Amino acid sequence: MRQYEYSPRPAGSSTIRVLLLLPNTDDTASISCQLINYSLPTTGNSYLPYEALSYVWGSESTSRCIFLDGSTLSITDNLYAALLHLRDRQFPRILWVDAVSINQQDDLEKGHQIQLMPTIYSRASHVIVWLGRAADHSNRALVNIRLAAEYESSGDEPTTPRRKETNCTAILTLLQRPWFRRIWRRYYRSVIRRTTLFHPS
């Protein structure tokens, strides 16, 4: 099957590509998508009907293929795992994903689209953070981060010292994942609003 070929973006255009992630009831089925041109509004500040995915690309040495408008496109294994978990069984999902929405072989397009990224993220209905596959009690870490905030406001002390130590270890391990190292570096260059941490169960 032929490789996907991008159509050029008009120079200076505020048009972006959003990814329509097609549903499938078979969780092991290949990922099929469509790319749709979408013009970012130049006025207003309402949230727009797509979700933006924030993730770490991961190693490009182990790539996977998705089906895009009847052609194939290579993506990293980490992005493939994210799309697999985000795919709904019944309904299509509209996403902005930099590795797919931007033609990575076109430096002029990349330069222009990067300038639009603050708008793309801030106007998205949600920003989904993909932290990677579950490992090292990461599910427990996310639960305990949420519970810690609730306990802080209520003043409860629900766990034993030993359990608290285990929870802290899981949380610290989670915070050492590549996404957090990346976001700390970019903290002062971009602000992500309405962020939802996403992690598979």
TrEMBL record:
Residues 50-184 form the Heterokaryon incompatibility domain. Pfam families: HET. InterPro entries: HET (IPR010730), HetReg/Transcr_Mod (IPR052895). This is Heterokaryon incompatibility protein-domain-containing protein. It comes from Aspergillus caelatus.
